[in-house]
Amino acid sequence: xxxxxxxxxxxxxxxxxxxxxxxxxxxxxxxxxxxxxxxxxxxxxxxxxxxxxxxxxxxxxxxxxxxxxxxxxxxxxxxxxxxxxxxxxxxxxxxxxxxxxxxxxxxxxxxxxxxxxxxxxxxxxxxxxxxxxxxxxxxxxxxxxxxxxxxxxxxxxxxxxxxxxxxxxxxxxxxxxxxxxxxxxxxxxxxxxxxxxxxxxxxxxxxxxxxxxxxxxxxxxxxxxxxxxxxxx
Length: 233
Ligand code: ADP
Ligand code: MG
Known about the structure:
With 233 residues, the chain is of the alpha/beta class. It has a single domain (34-59, 72-221), classed as Rossmann fold.
C-alpha cells in the first residue's frame, strides 16, 4: 500500500549567518493508519519538519510524497489544494472563534468551499460526535474546558476526512486531565483508522503513540533506546 508520508533525503537550510541546517537528510515513512510521534527538544527542527509535512514550507532538497504524490515539484496553488484536501492541522493554541458555537467553529473550516450549508452543519455535528462532544454543539468556547476546546479543533481538522492528522504540541496548553482526554481521543481515532502524526517535546505524550521517532539537531532517528520495538521504516 502507498504510504501516507514518504520523505527521502530532505534538507532544509535557513539563510542566516552562519546558515542553519534545520533538517539533515531526513527520511521518514508513515503508513496509513499509523500513529506516530516525533519528539525532540526546543530548536531541534520540529516546527520545520511540521511545516514541511504540512506543505507550508518547501524543502531545499529531497522528495516528499504525500499519498504517493510528489509534492516538491508542485506549484503553490496545487500544494494549497493538496493541503486543504488531505491534511488536518491541530495546533497548541486551539484557534477557535470566541463568539461562535462549537458546531459553527467546526463547520467554518469549509466556509469557502462549495456545498450546501445544511449538509455542512450536519457533518460538523457528526464530527463533534466523533470526538465525544455531541452534547456540546451549541456551546461557545468560553463555556468549554481546555480539553473540550482542543477536541472541537480536532473535529474541525477531521471535517474534510483528511489522509493525515498533523498535530503540533496538541497538549501544550492543557493540564494533565485534559491532556489525558485528548490522548484518549487520539487512541480512538487511531482505532478508526486515522493516520496521526503528533509532534511534541513531551516524552509522556510521545510514549502514547505506536511508533516514536526522535529529532535532534535536525537529524531524525528512531527512539528504540527508550521505546521497545521501534523502527524507522
Ligand atoms: P523546534 O520547533 O524543534 O524548536 P525549529 O524547527 O523551530 O525547532 O528550528 C530549528 C532550527 O532552525 C533552530 O536552530 C532555529 O533557530 C532555526 N530556524 C528556524 N526557523 C528559522 C528561520 N526562519 N530562519 C533562520 N533560522 C531558523
Ligand atoms: Mg517549534
